[in-house]
User: Fold this.
Amino acid sequence: MKRLSLLALLLLLTAITIPAQNNLTGLQIMEKVYNRPTGNDMEANLTMILISSSGNERVREIKQYIKDFGDVEKKIMFFIKPADVRNTSFMNWSYDDPNKDDDQWIYLPALKKVKRISSDSKGDYFMGSDFTYDDLGDRKPNEDTHKILREEKLNGEDCYVIESIPKDEDYMYSKTVTWIVKDKWIGLKKEFYDEDGEYLKTLNIKDYKNIKGYWIITGTEMDNVQKNHKTIMKLSNVKIDIGIPANKFTERMMKRGLK
Amino acid sequence: MEKFLNKILGKPVLVLITILLISIAFFFVMKQNSRMETDLDKYMPQEHPAFIYSNQAEKWFNIKDGIIIAIENENGIYNPGTLKKIKDLTKKLQKMKEIEKNDVTSLYTADNIVGTDDGLDVKAFYKRVPKSKEKLDELRQKVRSNEMVFGRLVSEDETVSVIIARINNDVFSQDFYNRIIEVSKEFEVPEKIHVAGRPIVEGTMALLGPADMKRMVPIVILVIIIVLYLVMRSIKSTFFTLLVVLFSTIWAFGLMAALGIPIYAVSTMIPVMLIAIGVADGIHLYSHLFHFMKENPDADKKTAVKNMLHEMWKPVVMTSVTTAVGFISLLTSEVYPIKYFGIFTAFGVMAAMMFSLVLIPAGILSFGLPRPKKKIKEEDETDSDNSPHFAYKFADSVIKHKNMIYVATVLISAISIYGITKVWINSSFLEKFEKDSEIVLTDKFINEHFGGTSTLNVILEGINEGEFKTPDVLRTVAQMQDEVVGELPVVGNSFSLADYLKRMNKVMHADSAKYETIPDSRDLIAQYLLLYEMSGDPENLWQVVTEDYKKANITFQLKSDNSKALNSAIDIIEKYRPEFKKAGIELNYAGSGYKALVFTDLILEGQIKSLIMSLFIIIILLSLMFKKLSIGLIGSVPIIVTALIGFGIMGLLNIPLSTTTALISSIAIGIGIDYAVHFIERYKIYANQTNDKTKTTHYTMKHTGRAIIFNAIIVIAGFLVLLFSVFPPNRTLGAMVSLNMFTSFLGTITIMLIILYNANIYFKNKKGEQK
Assistant:
């Protein structure tokens, strides 16, 4: 009897306190994450380690530049390693307008030609990794329905646990569950469930830093349990708001490569 | 032994009940625990290097066999209805729990990488079903210009498109097959749906063979009952002879189930063997009994049984032991199902021996002596009284024409040996089916429109990482592919990393056919591959190369799964071995087709080994039993002749050796030796009694010759029933067993008799002639 009344009291308390403390809905939380300021531009070295089920590791080193132009975010990447693809470059312009597809270009130094890539599958995996473009932050919050499952501590941080279900039934995930650090609005962990509702993979944030007042994620790990495949991504030499010139993001620069 | 038998036969009813109870117990164990093994991989010796390698390679490249579902529309597939069906069926298959989503390939799932003037287009051929004529024509154009899809997923006449669902070896079941068929059939009209592919062939075979056996064995038994009755003229003896066969089969399968060993396709041959062998003991026992009763019409059942056991236990035990040993020699085989087959048939043979010595006498003691219908007896009587018995005449004529028989035997053996040189092994599963069966016709249909339903994987392994980014290596691979596909009409297609690179090179040069070549620069190759990984589906890439580019997988599609087709491809591929070797690259083979090929070789090798071994063991056993080496040698003559003729006829009639036909040689030995042992044993007894060669020959022919011919007639009649089987391998089995029975019978009463006669064994007077 005693226990029951205590539970009722707790329930009552939470019912009052949550909306009182912060009236945030699942969608609002996800928007905060999506809109978290990360600076106007960034230069960084990206190391991507692909680990296959047999334990084989492939390491790719990339120099990347990103700049936010308001309605469009431009990104250019130059491969440093492996040696045989050095200076292969990839440029992506991603638009805020949900009806507008990304523009993409590739430059192969051995061919000396820039080619436009048009691809209709946003679900594509990013450079053969376990990340899709959407996983890398391209997915807009209003594409899913969000629900706060609970609040709990993860790695010593207070987190919201949010369940997101895509509005489009044909989407590659049937559900994702995200742990979001309160006040920092960083997704600390994310579980992905495939179309059939089966557990597919987990994203873990290994490292994040405060650079010039922005929370920047610098170490992530994606574990695909179905394929037993893993991708580790690390950012180093991160520089924020250094005023990357707009003409950095052109075909000419792609061809020029890293000197 | 005899004492022991007489002792336990003191309580015949108790013996009957005990055996019955144990049999019932085994029957229930069998009912509950028996399980068919349909995964053909389980048949193969997993520790054999070729299998270890292939299994490993299958993991590296995710090599699986594919179910092929072809959608045919005579008016062409480019219409909204058919395209929607391709899409819906693809999705349905992807949702089945036995199939992984990524393992389904169709026009709907395929990526189309197309070069344009300024770029590269990576798109699905269609997501929404195109409706307008322009859109449909556009799709048609896209498919036509993509050599990785045209002719592979869509036939060149554009009337058929295939969906390929790759599945793991262990998921096939009757239920899964039914569901695949059911799901596919929903999409028929006006389209036609055809389902083929190795998993279907293997699965159907693993189910159809035994199912056919299950249907045929009762008919075989029925025919044997009828013939047994016609020969014995007694319901009681027919009944007990059959009981011996039935119980020994139940015991063998019961023990198998109790030990948790599944029923393999070859295990269905166990009842076949036990019918052939078990019937023999009964016939010889009763035959002797009738013989005894004719000579001693007043003897009571106890005396009759006592005499029967006294005179017959030895040959029954000897024949059974030699037969069992013959089967145990199959343990030398590397193939587990064959080992099991050997062990449990041997067990069944020993059980049959025990039942013959216990059940039959107990039956006589409990239910009285069988009283054959008078007719046959009277005929016998009049025969032997007035003119010489037919058996005597026959024996005389054999002895008289001995030179002719020698010549005939040598001649037939020579022809057989020539035939044996033409024997070939066939690992084909498809060729085990009826030529006009659904499965063969579907396969033919798909082979006419596409590269082929069977595959051969060539695995190349380099020393260094990135080996398969080297232009020269890739060019050799491409050259090898071109030569195999160009030279052999049976090879319809091939697929490797080289094809991806040729495609990428073409696409990056604005789809110009001129650039459908391997690039000259290693860097460009690496960059193309990176681009493919970024824009296409890298999972596809890992089916042709490992992530470290150290190993590559080349898939050849063949229009036939028979050994000749596979070997013809391998012959050409082998020519490239030295060239790869120079670059430090090892060449190996993988895939289910190749495994089946190795497997069949193993079976044959095992068969020949065990055949030779059992021949030696039997010669030794016979020599020990009769305490004469010469008898061992003479006794083996009929089985050698039988085996020669058996294999010779297979060669001459172009019947390939396969898992079932190879086993037939075991029957030849198992049964052939029985005839010889009974004959020699009786010959020895009469020789001692009469010391007269002619009389001995006459009596033996009358006593044992008769039993042998009855035995042969019964089993041949039974097995000829299998000629009406719907499963061709079972028909071959029926014909070959019948043939073997006939030749061992004939060999025993002709050539062996002559040698025995001329050898003068068992006669004190060396000439053995008493004037």
